[in-house]
């Protein structure tokens, strides 16, 4: 062992990180997978049931209904983030990188929400969109558009869109950091040559910048997927453990929480018997959904690098 470490001294520097990662990440994942094979309430004796928890999750009508609704909301956030949020992030990142007019304002405006906590963000948006005293409705009424006023925070159909809007406002600057970093790796000579040849702002962005940062785009898509599938705080603060009115803001992470710890568990009367067993089962299904997509993304990244 000493000879092995002597030939590879860098392992001694990696060892503390590996130990911490194993204790706080690897062990909880393996432990959750183990618990999912038991019927357990979290503190009493465990009863081994094999794959029964998984069968119940996908055959119980009530649980499947909530699982499908939560998955739909998560995918809605993901698609909106990729289709709407990401193009805006790329454009704003390019404005800041190119130091165009107004870039300083965009930089401050976009990065400021990073210093605001989630409860404060939800409170701010409540002041804006509340049906009774919200600023948005007051502006609509004062400008003669009172027919468009809505109780935005109380309409179930709008719930997940409100959550996405809050997440977008709060997290816009995170993706921009990566895009700006990727754009700084692009050769200035290429961009200057395109400018001399008459390529405008949008042509340079489309034909030069985007092809050069496609690896970063793939990574942000994966990150957006992971965040969308595991979002919890905004939904919990806005709709509680029940996921809001008719589950309008329910997510997979929220379903796991209320199954394992909440009072509004989809297990009904069986919550006291198998709360932790079924909760970890949902957590394992969520983990597999994220893990499989991450593996596919890594494979595609390697193939893209080989083609380049």
Explain what this protein looks like in three dimensions.
With 308 residues, this protein is an all-alpha fold. The chain has helices at residues 2-7, 10-35, 52-59, 61-97, 103-111, 118-129, 135-142, 159-183, 188-196, 201-212, 214-230, 233-239, 252-260, 271-307, and strands spanning 38-39, 47-48. A two-stranded antiparallel ribbon has the order 1-2. β1 and β2 form a beta hairpin. The longest helix has 37 residues, at 61-97. The radius of gyration is 24 Å and the shape is flat. The mean pLDDT is 85.
Task: Give the helices and strands, then pairings.
Elements: H1 2-7, H2 10-35, E1 38-39, E2 47-48, H3 52-59, H4 61-97, H5 103-111, H6 118-129, H7 135-142, H8 159-183, H9 188-196, H10 201-212, H11 214-230, H12 233-239, H13 252-260, H14 271-307
Antiparallel strand pairs: 1-2
Instruction: Describe the largest sheet.
Output: 2 strands, antiparallel
Average predicted local confidence, pLDDT: 85
Shape: flat
Helical fraction equals over 70%
Cα gyration radius (Å) = 24 Å
Structural class assignment: mainly alpha
Content of β-strand: under 5%
Euclidean distance between termini CA atoms: 40 Å
Per DSSP E runs of 2 or more residues, the count of β-strands stands at 2
Quickly list its features.
308 residues, mainly alpha, two-stranded antiparallel sheet, 14 helices, 2 strands
Structure at a glance:
By secondary structure, this protein is mainly alpha-helical.
